[in-house]
Amino acid sequence: MFDEVRTARLILRLMPVQFLEACVSGDLATAEKVIGFGLSEELYSSKHWMAIRINDLRTDPDYWPWSLRAIALATSRVVIGQIGFHSRPNPEYLRPLVPDGVELGYTIFTAYRRQGFAEEAARGLTDWASREQGVRNFAVSISPGNAPSIALARKLGFLKVGERIDDEDGLEEVYAMRLAAP
Predict the structure, then answer these.
(1) Are 70 and 79 in contact (CB under 8 A)?
(2) How high is the mean pLDDT of the chain?
(3) 168 vs 121: which has the higher pLDDT
(4) How do the domains of the chain map onto residue ranges?
(5) pLDDT band at residue 169, thresholds of 50, 70 and 90?
(6) CA distances from residue 35 to 50, 102, 125 in whole angstroms, order as listed
(7) CA distance linking residue 35 with residue 55, whole number of Å
């Protein structure tokens, strides 16, 4: 089933459009009911990205399995962050640096950082994409000043392959990783 990926401590559940819309409008009760997890106010700091993903899903329904996922603790069923891919595999913008790749993005909320959750979620989702979708090449784009994210990328096996200017974030370093076939 592609709508949920489980790891040792986490559940990575796809965020349906109804959930994203409830979050963007600030309707916490509906959002919690739709996703089935307890939510943190920090989730609302991602409204901008949620609005973009709503548009992506309406424009391209095949994007669904690659879209944003809630990262929830399996024990308490509380959302501690989000993870997902910026597009379906092999988008034109990524081909020069990571051909046939897909770009991963993630956020862990402040209270849950430095506990290995980002690493576990990233491994879980890249393993899913490799095993279920046949994707082998992955990318992450990181601000040069974000030392914790660069360290995590390196720990996961990503290597710097170039730089690019993002319209919103400015200069970003692009890291790539290739997974062996499962």
Answers:
(1) yes
(2) 94
(3) 121
(4) 4-178
(5) confident
(6) 14, 25, 18
(7) 19
Measure Cα distances from 101 to 73, 138, 151 in Å.
Answer: 28, 5, 21
Secondary structure (DSSP) of the chain: -TTEEE-SSEEEEE--HHHHHHHHHT-HHHHHHHH-SB--GGGGGGHHHHHHHHHHHHH-GGGGGGS-EEEEETTT-BEEEEEEESSSSS-GGGTTTSTTEEEEEEEE-GGGTTSSHHHHHHHHHHHHHHHHH---EEEEEE-TT-HHHHHHHHHHT-EEEEEEEETTTEEEEEEEEEPPP-
**24-58, pLDDT tens digit by residue?**
998 989 999 999 999 988 887 788 889 999 999 99
Q: Which pLDDT does position 1 carry in this prediction?
A: 44
Total Cβ atoms within 10 A of residue 75: 8
Query: What count of other Cβ atoms lies within 10 Å of the Cβ of residue 170?
Result: 10
In the CATH scheme, what architecture does the domain 4-178 have? Answer: 3-Layer(aba) Sandwich (3.40)
State mean pLDDT over 128-153: 96
